[in-house]
Structure formats: C-alpha cells, structure tokens
Amino acid sequence: MKVIFPKYLFYKNKFYPDYGVLIDGDTIADVDSKSNLLDKYPQAERTYLSEQTLLPGTVNAHNHCFQSLLRGIAADRPFLEWRDRSLYYYSPRMSREDIYNGALFAFGEMMKRGVTTVGDFFYLHNFGRESDGAIIQAAKDLGIRLSLNRTMYDWDGAPAGYVESIPQAVENTMYLAEEYKDDPMVNILPSPHSLHAATPEMILKGHEIAKKLNVKFHIHVAEEPFEVEQVKKEHEGLGTLEYLDRLGVVDESMVIIHGVWLSPEEIDLLGEKRGGLVYCPSSNMFLADGITDIPRMIKAGVTVALGSDGGCSNNRISVFEEMRMVSLLQKAKTCDALCVNYEQAFQMGTENGGLLLNFKIGKIEEGYKADFVGVDLEDLSMMPLSESLEQMLPNIVYSMEPTAIRTVIVAGNPTVKDGQLITVSEREISRRVRETMKRLNS
Ligand SMILES: [Zn+2]
Hints:
Number of helices: 16
Shape: globular
Bound molecules: zinc ion
Structural class: alpha/beta
Strand content: 15-25%
Oligomer: single chain
Distance between the termini: 51 Å
Radius of gyration: 21 Å
Largest sheet: 9 strands, mixed
C-alpha cells in the first residue's frame, strides 16, 4: 500500500489541502485527511507532491493512434482530398511495426499531456489481429490504460487493410474480448465504423456483441452532411440517428462520435435512450465539420465525453485542450457564457470518459482506479490562486499550459515524472517516428 500527499487534492468537486489518497494495488483504497491516513496506515509507503495539485487522470475517449504519423500532411485541404492524400495514401504502407510506433507516439504524447486512459478507435487491422496486438503492446509498454474500440468495417471503397467480412470482424473482436477479459488495463469495445463504412448488418452485429459482453459500442454518426444526405436519400428521409433507431441499436449501450448534424429531435431521442456522445471539438473545427449542439445534448441527458480524434485532424492531442475548446466553441456559437461551464468541461474530460469506455476511472474516490495527474502550482499558467482556491479549476480548464503537468500516475504506477515520460523515453519515440516516416516515404 502507498499513500500520496499532494499540496491539494481534488475530491468530491473541491480542492482540499492536507489530504491524501491511499492506493492498494491499482485501486484507490481510501481518501482522507493527512493526519487520519498517517494514523490509519503508518506502514504505507509515502510520496509527497508538495507543490502539486492532484487531479483524476484525463480520458481521451476518441482517438485513432496511427493517424499521429500523418500529422501536418495535407493540412487545410477539403475532407476528401485530406483523406486521400494522408489516410488512404499511407495506410496500405503501414506494417505492424509502423502501427506500433504510431501508437507509442500518440499514447506517449497524450500521456505527457495528462491522459491516463485512451479509447482508440482502431480500424487498420491488416487482415487479422496482429495490428490490434501492436496497439495493445504499445499501451502496455507505456503504461496507459486502453479501450481498444475495435472497428468493424465492411465498405470496400477504403484501403483493403481496413475491411473485414462480418464473420471475421465478429470473430476477431470476440477473440480479443475473451483474451483480455481479466485485464484491468485493457477493454475491447465493438465499434462499427459509421453508417457510411459499415453495412446495417455489421452495425447490428456490433450492437449484439456489445449486449453479449455487457459493454458500450462506439460508432461515428453524422460527422459530415454527406452521411446525413446519403441516409436521407436511401431511407425515406430519415435522419442518421432515426435510421439507427429503426435498426434497433439506439439504447444505453450506444456511444456516438461527433453527432454534428443531428436534428434537435434526434438529440432528444439519444438522451431518452440514455446514449452517450464523444465530442471532439478541435477535430470538428480542424476538418470544418461544423458545431455539435452540446447544450441540447446536456439538456437531453446525453453523457458527453471528450476526444482528441486522430493526431492529423486536430492537431494537438490533449484532453485539457478539448476541455477548453468545448467551452469556448459552444460559448461562441450560442453567445451564452453559461452554456458549458468549466466544471462540466472537466467532468466530460474525466469521469464521463470512464463511463463511455466501461472503466471505473475519472474520480478520486474509494474504489476508483488510481489514475492521477499532478499539476505544478508554481507554473505561471496556474497563477494566481487565492486562499479560497476558487480559481483552481477555471485555471486548469482555461489557462493551464502543458508545462504545468509534472506527474502522471496510471494504476498506481508513475508514468510521467518531472514532466518527462519514464516508461519509454521520448528520444526513443522520436527515433521510431523518424524511422517509420523514412520507410513510409521511401
Ligand atoms: Zn474518429
């Protein structure tokens, strides 16, 4: 057992001085005042983070890790040109090792920015399960918690390595789910890609698997108007979510990604059915997708989490960044300063992500996983801070720079110390990225 004593601890939506957290294995076993903890557990190993405030780790609920390798390529181009020149051009060239290097790169960079769990929506399967294995290996080597949102994809207009038949997709997803069912660091969630890249039969299978495994399933919905137009044309004027509801897959197991072009009625329907949304504000801005109606989502009762999306459509990879973006973008759209506040943004980037990825994470409370971020209170971007600490959370969401992130702990194990990755060196990651890009461009 070990105990961490930060300067302040974020507990039940408040910051407490002279508090600590007791960790047993990978789980939080107690949260109490420093004196009580010292009395109760005199033998526990002690760590002092005396200039830091301790927060729950952030959750990046939607990412495509191999896309980090494509950052800066075909930037500022229309969506289809961007897709063809970056994604579709490079994907067929990527070997298992390139995929591993891309995952190490994406996960390493986001972990340094305070991400302790990532939901990776992964579709470059390359005709089997080896590439999925490479992603899981990279997560394990870095020590980040991973939900492999294993994509089910059967539209053959894309690179062949994305595509699987329905029986293959089901077999591979179920195989991995079985293999990792007792691993607290890895979840496998079925993820039919979207209405434009998965057939209705594939989507139904994804939903069926989710029910069987008692987990969520993820699916991109209404990111761009073309998908909405296509569904409308093919299905008697139905909206995308209306059509999915007719298929019978809109319920509490459903997590949609983006949801930019849903009608207000469809948002209400998603809320009534207790569905979730992963919102990727920076990516939606970067790709000129539009602006999801987040205030309506919240009002409808939709659980909203945050994602960076792929590293080549953002192009940063930090959930603190997305907390800032959701609030600022929604304020700009609605001209209402109250529409998304910093407390809501913080909750989206922490505990809501846990809910949508089926992990007990995102809060510093007994029974939750011991995933933390330590923020340096001496960093100028965290100042000023009055005695009442009322600026702490607004500063974390609105002004904090990555330089303030000093400590990251996942499952009780430090992965970032003094702002540096300690599980895999940053130098090693950059060497691997250079090597892979040299190969891909040769
Ligand atoms: Zn995506």
